[in-house]
Design a protein that fits this description.
By secondary structure, this protein is mainly α. It has helices at residues 2-16, 21-40, 56-80, 100-112, 133-140, 143-152; strands at residues 89-94, 116-121, 125-130. The two termini are 19 Å apart.
Amino acid sequence: MLSLAFVLALLWLSISGVYKPAILLLGVGSIALVVWLSRRMDVVGVEHNPALFSWRLPVYWLWLIGQIVKANLEVAAVVLFPAGRIHPTIFTAPVRLKSSVGKVTYGNSITLTPGTVTLQLDRNQIKVHALLKSSAEGVESDAMQRKVVWLERHR
């Protein structure tokens, strides 16, 4: 629970950018609420311990931010100059991740990337909607799933 609170505090402080007492108090309250809810839902444990990701988590976040920026530029270009480049498709891709946290990380990473949305996540497959062919090829290339496997490899 302490490592969860610590990671949430770091994340909140880095995203907020405002360090006034009232805002800090709201941040502390939010973090306490999330930690309490996580404990009550029994999702705090070895599999969900953010400290276990060590240095790999910030590296993954940086890689994911790069993918989000790249996809943003592709989608913006298509919006500005459509010319028949929009090819929405729904497809299913295999999931070879073992842990539920890894599967959710993978599904959320797909959804965070513009042009793709995770529609359904099953035990061994994921259903994705892609706006562009390049977006679909990005998921089908398995690069993101390999990164999530790398993120969890130390376990």
